[in-house]
Every structure is written in C-alpha cells, then in structure tokens.
Specification:
Elements (H helix, E strand, L loop, with lengths): L1 H6 L5 E2 H12 L7 H6 L2 H13 L3 E7 L6 E7 L3 H26 L2 E4 L9 E2 H6 L11 E4 L2 H15 L11
Antiparallel strand pairs: 1-3, 2-3, 4-5, 4-6
Bound molecules: zinc ion (ZN).
C-alpha cells in the first residue's frame, strides 16, 4: 500500500486505483498467498488507508461525483512524517528505559530463596510487611541482586540512543 502511494507521489490516486494497481502487481506472481486475496479487496485497501491516515501517514481529499452523487477519495502519502514519528517513539522508549533504570537502582528487591519457578519480586516495603516470609511457601525472602537487570537496561538505553532513522533509503 505504501509502495503505491509512493509510486503515485506526483499524481492523485483513488482508493479504487490503488486496489487495481495492487491487483496488477500481485497477479501472475508465483508466491501468491491466500491472504493476498484479502489485500485485493477494496474494503481492505480503504481500511488500511484510514489506518495510515489515523497514524498521520496518509492524507485524502474527497470530491463528490456529480453523476453518481458518491464521494471519490483521492489519497496521497505523507511519509516525510515517518522520521518525526519514529523519533517521537524513540524518545518515549528512552524515557521508559530510564525510568525503569532509576526504579531498579533505587529499589531493593526481595524474593524467596526456596521458590524456583515464578519467583515473586517484592519491594522492601512489601517484604517488610510480610516479615520477610514467602506468601507461597513460607520461605525466607532475601535481597536480590539486580546488577544484571541494570546492565541489561544500560545496554538497551545505549542501543536506543544509537538508532538512526533514514527514511530516504526506503523511498527508493
Ligand atoms: Zn517461596
């Protein structure tokens, strides 16, 4: 769908045109999958276009056909916004990772020394309330090392920082 919008960048295209073009593109291909049948439906094309529209990746204008009285929708892609949207998402993930990092860093966690599976993590306050006794087996709750978690989060934060988006490559 995105391909058709990009290919028709300099002209106006209706949802019907897009459905037709996808049909032409898929026709005769060896790897024709049953789910491709679904893509061919005009309703599916429209649904996907509205999805792109709600994600701010496509725009349309509509014109009433004088002879039929029906609306004709002309669509175009707004893929320049992708980079902006991805940057927004990156920022959000970065914040979440940092919040989690600080949370892990500032909290001691306790877990049961007997329970092997489905270990429940308790904060200090929770463990204190329970007199440091496991709610499952009555075993002792001991402080947990979370160095591994902190290391993992640190790596993810750096990974996330190093992501560079290039939408130009996708436009080819
Ligand atoms: Zn236990």
């Amino acid at each position: 769908m995105g391909k058709e919008l990009l290919n028709s960048e300099d002209e106006e295209i209706t949802d019907e045109d897009i459905a037709e073009r996808i049909k032409d593109r898929i026709k005769g291909k060896k790897d024709f999958e049953p789910e491709d049948e679904e893509i061919l439906k005009l309703n599916t094309v429209r649904k996907t276009l509205y999805q792109l529209y709600s994600e701010r990746l496509a725009q349309f204008r509509r014109i009433r056909d004088k002879s039929t009285g029906w609306f004709i929708y002309y669509w175009w892609g707004e893929f320049d916004l992708i980079e902006e949207l991805l940057l927004e998402k990156k920022k959000l993930i970065q914040e979440k990772l940092r919040d989690r990092f600080h949370y892990e860093k500032e909290n001691y966690f306790f877990s049961c020394e007997n329970c092997e599976e489905n270990k429940i993590k308790y904060t200090f306050e929770e463990a204190f309330e329970l007199n440091f006794r496991c709610t499952e087996c009555g075993g002792q709750l001991v402080a947990e090392e979370n160095e591994d978690v902190l290391d993992f989060l640190k790596k993810r934060i750096i990974q996330n920082q190093n992501i560079i988006f290039s939408t130009k490559k996708n436009k080819e």
